[in-house]
Amino acid sequence: MAGQQGAHIRASRPGNLETKMIYFDNSATTLVKPPEVAEAVVFAINNFGIAGRSFYGAALLADREIYRTRAEIAKLVGLGEPLNVAFTSSFTEGLNLVAGGLVSRDDIVVATVAEHNSVLRPLYLSGCELRLIDCSESGVLSEASIKEHIRPPTKYLFCTHGSNLTGNITGVRELYALCKEHGVTMVLDVSQTLGIVPVSVEMADILVFSGHKGLFGPQGTGGVIVSGRQDFRPVKTGGSGDHSFERHQQNGIPDVFEAGTPNGHGIYGLQKGVMFVTETGVERIYEKAARLSKQFYCGLKDVRGVRFYGDFSTENRLPVLALNIEGLDSGELSLRLWEGYGIATRPGIHCVPLLHERLGTAKTGMVRFSFSYFNTEDEIEAGVRAVREITEETWST
Fold first, then answer.
1. For 311-324, what is each residue's pLDDT tens digit?
2. Which residues in the chain show pLDDT less than 50?
3. 223-240: per-residue pLDDT in tens?
4. Which one-letter DSSP state was computed for residue 169?
5. Percent of the residues in the chain that have a pLDDT greater than 90, as a whole number
């Protein structure tokens, strides 16, 4: 069974000593994917022409499969119109295009301190007045701060559905209801949640996603999902295969985001990843990943010197855990996990500087462990043992 193969990968450590890597960096990208994803990419490389440009077989094949990928994503989030799904090269590009196509210098925009730089930097670049929703010491958004900021004259809210650092899941339905009450357009970052927990178009006006994380697609894939009617200023312009005598790009989705040659090879691979998620079931995927995450947390939460970050008063959280060992830099801990145990993690700031500042870890960073449907209980136990051993060594010196 694909779900039981584990995240062991042949990898080389210093000294050319080969070992089986235990992969706990799934929030960055899922390295172990359903085999049909790679098979689809190979097939597309050998068989796809350029979609939307002609009527010969290879071009029409690419066109049909790209549309089918839109339809699979639309089905996953409960969207009735597949053409309201636009493809981009990544979540980062998608967010840049959305922010560039909506936000003006005179706008008042609200975001949260938990946002990724892929959200913050396009907003900084826009020159808008940016206001921030604060959070608690466990990373939970402040209700008082939410009520203070989500009201006129605020025009847009940019918000993450799930933190790539703490694993906290935001109560976005309540946020969206507040946005609709006050006429605020809500843009939701679902890069860490789509494919892992239930995500619906009823959560926001615009959803921006990554293809290579919870959807198990290839890197170089992502996109934008619009729940209703929304016009954007064209930011990315060029050839699109139609309206060629018009001087400007069409401003409706998907054309407004899709100038240039589509990544048909990657999009077809993404289709197979999305179909794996749909056929396996998001609930089943989440149940397993959450169980592994809880196993890891319970194995270390009482170890002296280990500190976790995030809200653990609820089990409704992503399979993402960030920790530090007191007295040990996050980069050093991550390196020791790799060199001594073949365990791949992510140290540092994780592109969320404001949240690190709020949690007091701007200087030390954190080490993030993020789990996938393809990890195993044995791998989790190996991770627990490794952190325990490193903690004991650190505290005994």
1. 999 999 999 999 99
2. 1-18
3. 999 998 888 998 888 766
4. B
5. 86
Cα 161 to Cα 242: distance, rounded to the nearest angstrom = 35
Tell if the pTM clears 0.90, that is, is over it: yes
Q: What Rg, from alpha-carbon coordinates, does the chain have?
A: 22
Separation between Cα atoms, residue 287 and residue 4, nearest integer Å: 14
CA–CA separation, 245 and 16 (whole Å)? 58
Beta bridge partners of 156: 109, 185
Counting runs of H as helices and runs of E as strands, what totals does the chain give?
Answer: 11, 14
Is the alpha carbon torsion for 286, 288, 289, 291 positive or negative?
A: positive
The tokens of 87 are what?
Answer: 């493809």
CA-wise closest residue to 155 among 209, 203, 91, 111: 111
Specify whether the CB–CB gap between 87 and 262 falls below 8 A.
Answer: yes
CA angle 155, 156, 159 (to 5 degrees): 155
CA 93, 348, 28: angle at the middle one, nearest 5?
40
**CA–CA dist 209, 394 (Å, integer):** 39
Around 176, how many Cα atoms within 13 Å sit in the side-chain half-sphere? 18
Which residue blocks in 309-367 are alpha helix, DSSP H? 330-341, 353-359
List residues bridging with 112 in a β-sheet. Answer: 133
Q: In 10 A of CB 218, how many CB atoms?
A: 22
What are the Cα distances from residue 375, in Å, to 8, 30, 105?
8, 11, 45
Domains of the chain: 2-33+282-396 (3.90.1150.10), 37-280 (3.40.640.10)
> 389: which 2 tokens?
């051993």
pLDDT value of position 53: 80
